[in-house]
Design goal:
about 80 residues, alpha+beta, Alpha-Beta Plaits, 4-stranded antiparallel sheet, two-stranded antiparallel sheet, 2 helices, binds iron/sulfur cluster
Length: about 80
């Protein structure tokens, strides 16, 4: 498993539902009604994947920091 993941939120997709921040407040916060990752890189964590999978508009992308492989959301 990779040592680090990169987490990003597409501000053009995010509709400010707050689901991610509610599920994983240690990873996401709402700033001006847009989700913002608290850190660009995180240690691999199921909660980050679950938040990305739960986003209704797939605004959250989680990638392997080394090879950019897409971790979540899945298809
Ligand atoms: S779950 Fe998706 S749409 Fe909702 S605040 Fe988070 S990134 Fe934005």
């Amino acid at each position: 498993m990779s040592a680090a993941w990169r987490v990003s939120v597409d501000p053009h997709r995010c509709i400010g539902s707050g689901i991610c921040a509610g599920m994983a407040p240690e990873h996401f916060q709402l700033v001006d009604d847009l989700s913002t990752p608290l850190a660009d890189q995180v240690a691999p964590a199921d909660l980050v994947v679950e938040a990305a999978e739960s986003c209704p508009v797939e605004a959250i992308l989680v990638r392997d920091a080394t090879d950019q492989r897409l971790i979540a959301p899945g298809s």
